[in-house]
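User: Sequence in, structure out. Go.
Assistant: Echoing your sequence, followed by the structure tokens.
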Amino acid sequence: MAERVVVTGCGVVSAIGHTLLSFWSNLVQGVCGIAEATVLSTDQLAQKVVAEVKDFKPQTHFDERQLASLDRVAQFAVVAAREALEHSGLSFADGLSERTATIIGTGVGGQNTQDDNYKRLYREGAKRLHPLTIPKLMVNAPASQVSMHCGLRGPAFAVASACASATHAIGLAFQLVRSGAVTCAVTGGADACLTFGTMKGWEAMRVMAPDTCRPFSRERKGLVIGEGAAMVVLESLDHARKRSAEILGEIVGFGMSSDAHDLTSPDVGGMARAIEGALDDAALSPEDIQYINAHGTGTAANDEVETQAIKRTFGAHAARVVISSNKSMLGHALGAAGALELVATLMSIRKAVAPPTINYLGPDPTCDLDCVPNEARPLAIDAALSNSFAFGGLNAVLAVKRV
């Protein structure tokens, strides 16, 4: 018999808050985390604005010996995981550590370490690098570091599917707990790639906005790169109830698809299949959904195609379902985006509030759904979806419910 899977803890490091509570408070208030970059020089960049994690002080979380092996992306992951575990109240007595998975998504891994070492090699002519360079920059470093710092001895691995990484990671963790293969999981996503080399690469794609992110709005000009991490603690409902844990919500479905279409252009069919897959897995109809936390990048193509996919899947109910895009405040945190957005979705259900899509200038006729423009809205939510659609045509959608 399949286990029911619930969320009992959340942790966040984001451009609008370094904790779950500050993140949620600012999200509902429509606080924008997008501003001119301070973590890197923009002198040689056309793109000046990012959504960075401001005033993050690693020394308050780690000692100097630990920092020698932690890239910024792993720092974010560990801090968010610690908060999620503390929030959950889990105790790892009686072998639970061996029955707890660590599955974390990231888009690109330790880009700060890579960028710094390329400077040393190619600009400064360094003859050797730090012996921990490879362990710091490898894409599985956040998962490995969370496992080590939190003492989690069950299955541990990374998921890398660009902007869908965190949602894929959480979906796989959900499936492991549901199957009974593990009792609990610490899962989510992290990314920290606000580096000169990475930003030059994004500039070359010509998909970034020069000022801010305006998902689903007229005059939207593209995405804004962000960073951060979010982690959730999953466990079987029976396990959570036996220890009288506070239950934040239930994950009830997970849908995945591949466009098999184009490396960068979104495909309505692929998106729609992932949404349909999540609904089918959850045994929900479109009419059961009150809210969708949209992928909503702010690019002309993505927002239009996501609108079409929702209409294709939801039919007439698309006009009644409420959607919003957190990327208007968080920027696009890439491999962390899906996890940040799932946490936002869970909080939306618990608090009966749909966060706004800020920076909205007015409706675009190709994006004619209700996107909660500029101000949060009270909304009773029993069931919701969280969408993630990545470059390479990799799609992942989670369905969550109130318990």
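User: And one key feature?
Assistant: Residues 72-88 form the longest helix (17 residues).
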